[in-house]
Amino acid sequence: MLGTSIPNELLSDHLFLLVGTNPLPNWVAAKLLLKPGGCVHLVYTSGVEKQMERMRKVLENHEDLSVSFFKTADSDEAQIFEKVSERAKELKKETGKVIGLNYTGGTKMMSVHAHRALHSLNLVQSLSYLDARSLSLKFDRPANAKPIDIALSPEIRITLEKLLRLHEDFNRRGEVRYSTVANCAEAAQGLMEMHRNYSGQHTWNKWCEPLRKKVDNRKLKYDLGYYRQIVTQFDQKSLPQDSDIERLVKTDLAEQKKYSAAAAESFLKNIVAGYQKMLAELRVTGGSMLQDVVRQNPSFKDSIEFAKWLTGGWLEQYTFAKLEECREEAEINADGMAVNLESLSDEGREFEADVIALRGYQLFYLSCYTGSELQTAKLKLFEAMVRSSQLGGDEAKFALVSSVDKEADLKRNIESNWQKSGQVEVFGRDSLPKLKDKLRDWFNRKPKTD
Fold first, then answer.
1. Using one digit for the tens of pLDDT, what is the confidence trace for 286-308?
2. How confident is the model at residue 448, as a pLDDT?
3. Residue 14 and residue 102: Cα distance in Å, rounded?
4. Which of 75, 278, 111 has its CA nearest to residue 189?
5. Cβ neighbours of residue 158 under 8 Å, at least 6 residues apart?
6. pLDDT tens digits for 144-193?
7. What is the CB neighbour count within 10 angstroms for residue 316?
8. For residue 142, is the peptide bond before it cis, meaning its omega torsion is within 30 degrees of 0?
């Protein structure tokens, strides 16, 4: 049932929504502010007609409401004023019907002049907007209405599928692929133990480098002959022997010249133990060929997929597993988590994400990076910022899970230079062993209020 978390006196029979490039705020407003059986009036311009159509379809197909829509100008204030007031005057004739406007979406020009038309002509009883910083509904009218925290309102616990369909069409040639189960998470725990020290990370990434360099990922998608060629090559690739890992890490630790003999010995022991844990969880031994690992672990369809796991996919799976462990404590939505998301819309637009989770209507986007180079980490964070905003709007949060050191310094740098205080988080090398608790605390952190 709609509107259950909002007082009845704040609900509308007719709700005007201004359509912009991000449909999520309008979906939230429709779910919260409309009376059962009410009508949403979508106000749109020529530049967002496709967004309006997607919003209309989602609302009509899944909600207890009707949808009306009308077009107005992009930047002609007189036409915006006239179109909105004309429709509102028609609705006002329906005695006893409450009219509302949520002006979160649309352009600034639409917001200003739709607000002016309905307020100055006294045609609307409810004027509201969504505050992205505090995750609350705020009201201009009625004047005595207090802000309402909507972060975890049950009506707006959106599923990942619905969020994607609000943004893109996937009905014809478009498709969405992702997993909701962590793959070989216990084995990934072993690689995490290796990455707790730079020498383990450095040794492992050097061994993985040929696997990365040999592959053209775009050709893998579209060239079947090339795909089979790479599978054949990777099938015969062997995992390192335990003794090889021990020798390489020992050399790397010695070259760093910054550890005592006792500390180096302890690090070496833990790194080798991590590698052995990975082998044991995969039910193979050092020296096994990749095709043997695939035979023992049918969750990998072939050696290419396993190679992707070895070269970085393991961190995505480890992160997702830790999210699964804290799902209830973090109050993550049912059907709101995904790992290795790949989508291709009907119009050919691609979208990718390492790990995604939804809490209420708020998106949490996590990018995973097994390295520790700061410039690359910043690029990963920038990509995460852009993609999270693209899908989740101003409310979205984004994070990097990586092997970087001095994670707090990197976070402060990003918050300061990008003006993203409260939106970004960095989980570095020190956070990896306690990632479950770190993620839970991030999800449960209260939004900033004025």
1. 999 999 999 999 999 999 999 99
2. 67
3. 11
4. 278
5. 24, 27, 333, 336, 358, 360, 361
6. 999 999 999 999 999 999 999 899 888 766 788 999 999 999 999 999 99
7. 25
8. yes
Question: Contact, 106 vs 19, CB < 8 A?
Answer: yes
Nearest to 378, CA basis, from 407, 340, 342: 407
- Which residue type occupies 355? V
Tokens 């201009």 -> residue:
140
Sign of the dihedral defined by the CA atoms of residues 301, 306, 312, 314, in that order: positive
Which phi and psi angles does 2 have, rounded to 5°?
-80, 155
Amino acid at 97: K
d(CA 443, CA 22): 22
| Contact (CB, 8 A) for 323 and 337 | yes
Q: How many other C-beta atoms can be found within 10 angstroms of the C-beta atom of residue 256? A: 13
Q: What is the pLDDT of residues 212-267, one digit of tens each?
A: 887 888 888 889 999 999 999 999 999 999 999 999 999 999 998 888 999 999 99
- Please tell me whether the overall predicted TM-score, pTM, comes out greater than 0.90 for this model: yes
- 362: number of Cβ within 10 Å: 23
User: CA 237 to CA 244: how far, in whole Å?
Assistant: 15
Residues 6+ apart with CB under 8 A from 324: 182, 337
Question: What is the rounded average pLDDT of the residues 99-126?
Answer: 93
pLDDT tens by residue, 81-99? 999 999 999 998 887 899 9
Do the Cβ atoms of 26 and 17 come closer than 8 Å?
yes
3-state secondary structure of 357: strand
Q: Which two structure tokens, joined as six digits, stand for 57?
A: 């379809």
d(CA 257, CA 50): 60
